[in-house]
Amino acid sequence: MNSRRLARKARMLRWALNIYPPYLGAGVRVRRISADFRQVRVKMGLGLFNRNYVGTQFGGSLYSMTDPFFMLMLMENLGRDYIVWDKAASIDFVSPGKGPVYADFRIDDALLADIRQHTAGGDKYLPELHVEVRDGAGTLVARVHKTLYVRLKPRARQA
Asked: Which SUPFAM superfamilies match (predicted)?
């Protein structure tokens, strides 16, 4: 896919995610998806619908703001010959989110090469990825650990 087409696809996905009702309600905004789908920046403000009993970011909203991005990024970078699913996740709440929070997702060539190497024979691979949620001052609010399931589709294994 050429770079203009990828950039347009990234813009359209960003737009679609920003009008996705669960994200609208939780105050989640996708600020940036790079044209190569290797960097994503997400912001979540503190509002009526994502505030918990003590007035800080609701934990479920903190997790949901990080949920689909590694899967989407890998799907776009590995291509249609791969199955990519979220398998497991955990979140460690470090400090209260008292205002807007941000998560910056990144994947690189080394990760993609590692995945391709481990799945080349048709085996599943379970890469473990991490993202931090930080407030505007850079204070760590939460650490999210994601395990993904990646495998070549059967038709690609036979080729």
From this structure: Thioesterase/thiol ester dehydrase-isomerase
